[in-house]
Amino acid sequence: MEEIEQSSGERQPNARRVTRNTLTKYERARLIGARAVQLAHGAPMAEIDRKGAVDPLELARIELLEKKIPFIIRRYLPDGSFEDWKLSELDDAKTDFDARR
């Protein structure tokens, strides 16, 4: 995603989050794309069952399915504040996305 840097907004404490804990299709696409680029450029892989895959895009999908992508999702709110979510905290409403490609 993007490097976490000081933002003009204020971080919402975990107890006061207002967004849902569901990964959106846009976040899913961005996670897979960004992670695939990292893997293609030689970034270390998470401990996953590769299932014979060598394609960076497929490896990124597997990492997402197993929730092992090392990213934090930052969601900006209309008031300028933001929420940070770990991938392990989010539910993926479409766990069958791998089979639907």
UniProtKB/TrEMBL annotation:
One GO molecular-function entry: DNA binding
Domain of life: Eukaryota
Biased composition (Polar residues): 1-11
SMART domains for this protein: RNA_pol_Rpb6
Family matches, as InterPro entries: DNA-dir_RNA_polK_14-18kDa_CS, Pol_omega/Rpo6/RPB6, RPB6/omega-like_sf, Rpo6/Rpb6
Protein keywords: DNA-directed RNA polymerase, Transcription
UniProt GO cellular component terms: RNA polymerase I complex; RNA polymerase II, core complex; RNA polymerase III complex
Region (Disordered): 1-21
GO terms for biological process, alphabetical: transcription by RNA polymerase I; transcription by RNA polymerase II; tRNA transcription by RNA polymerase III
Signal peptide coordinates: none
Record protein name field: Uncharacterized protein
Organism of derivation: Palpitomonas bilix
